[in-house]
């Protein structure tokens, strides 16, 4: 072993904190040594140690984090079958892009205070490296839900803020409102995820704490987001202005501010809100783009064509974001969320969730095609699961959204003599025991029901207005430098550490 090789093999902490021999040898991004408050947090320290034990070597210029909101293992499996069958092939053996990832792991999604967590705490785990309380964004677990002052006192920087401070570019893309929990975890620090505009923040006791839409526009990190695409216009418009696409919907802000106008008032900043403007935007320029394509969440993929002003697909937004961020040679950090997988599950409408999962997979294919495995770490995961099950003994090639018993293989139905679907939920609005009286105790007969209609609510056991999240581990898929850290069963916040380490961050 030469002296240089010996030096290269030495633990990183023996090397100087700035540009290291290793950096020069690998022509990698510089080491980025920074002090952040969460290094004292036990969740952070444990995950940092778990990452160090994996000794990942890869160094990345760019990091892309895909989050399928609510995309548990059963959702991925069902989406795989759905995608293959939709193409007229064999669904069970079909490969999603996610299925072909060279590295994968299970992620433990519990939050500091909940066995079954929400999107705010779980996204915060991935953007800051700590577990925190369900419902809070960008603050550590010492801040209780809804406590403005405690939130401010326990605010912790996100990977996106750390990246901006180092001169990297940043972007966020979501099919949900851009102020919704998952994308907000990139930039917001709030003791309550619901504080999306000033009116709901005031009603929710936010006091002196700024609302999340305002935090996005006033984000002090570096030179701000290069690109932010999603839904949620109403949180950015005053209640005196009607939505440009849906005039019956007024803006939600009480402070009279038009945050979209404040964005465009800054030089080189553009605001777009429909598919035509999206198509006309030159993303291979230095323009800073805020795109808000719906007053609230964007459409489900299966219903996107019905949007009057048109909406870009998640893959199209992914292409735009990577094109824009690739203008910067320093590198970038990008979050892309398929935010509505979760909403479809909550409604009990599994097919909408599967189609949105396939849409995210197409976005992952786009990202893989546009970037190099040499310099870009791509991680795709879920924040938490849902109660979807794939059950019964359906034959091969049986439609995944159909009844379990098919004509070729007649089999008795359930004990009540009625057929049942392959997909099911443990709870939710498709519950079989809903309402009052003896009739409400009988499972509806699905004979003659089109269970493949996207509006069909899949049957569930426990009646709840909204189907719930589920607490089992979720999959993590990874490609590129640093992806080797994604293996085994990991705490969710290790994903932060894997991304930060690949970018060269060293924390103290
Ligand atoms: Zn949810």
Give a quick set of tags describing it.
single chain; 508 residues; alpha/beta; Alkaline Phosphatase, subunit A; 3 domains; ten-stranded mixed sheet; 28% helix; 16% strand; globular; disordered N terminus; binds zinc ion
* Sequence stretches where pLDDT stays below 50 over 5 or more residues: 1-26
Structural class, from secondary structure content?
alpha/beta
Strand percent estimate: 15-25%
Strand order of the largest sheet: 6-7-5-4-8-2-9-15-3-16
**What's the pLDDT, averaged over the residues?**
92
CATH level 4 superfamily of the largest domain: Alkaline Phosphatase, subunit A
Q: What is the number of independent domains?
A: 3
**Which small molecules are bound?**
zinc ion
Biggest sheet layout: 10 strands, mixed
Summarize this structure briefly.
28% of the residues lie in helices and 16% in strands. The protein is α/β, with parallel strands linked by helices.
Characterize the structure shown:
- The protein is of the alpha/beta class.
- 52% of the residues are buried.
- A 10-stranded mixed β-sheet has the order 6-7-5-4-8-2-9-15-3-16, with helices on both faces. A 3-stranded mixed β-sheet has the order 11-12-13. The protein has a two-stranded parallel ribbon with strand order 1-17.
- It has 3 domains: 3-30, no CATH class; 38-387 and 468-507, Alkaline Phosphatase, subunit A, CATH 3.40.720.10; 393-464, no CATH class.
- It has helices at 3-9, 21-26, 42-54, 73-86, 119-128, 148-153, 159-165, 181-184, 198-203, 212-217, 259-265, 275-280, 314-325, 340-347, 350-370, 494-502; strands at residues 32-34, 62-68, 103-108, 169-177, 227-231, 269-272, 288-292, 332-338, 376-382, 385-386, 388-390, 423-428, 460-463, 469-470, 474-479, 489-491, 505-507.
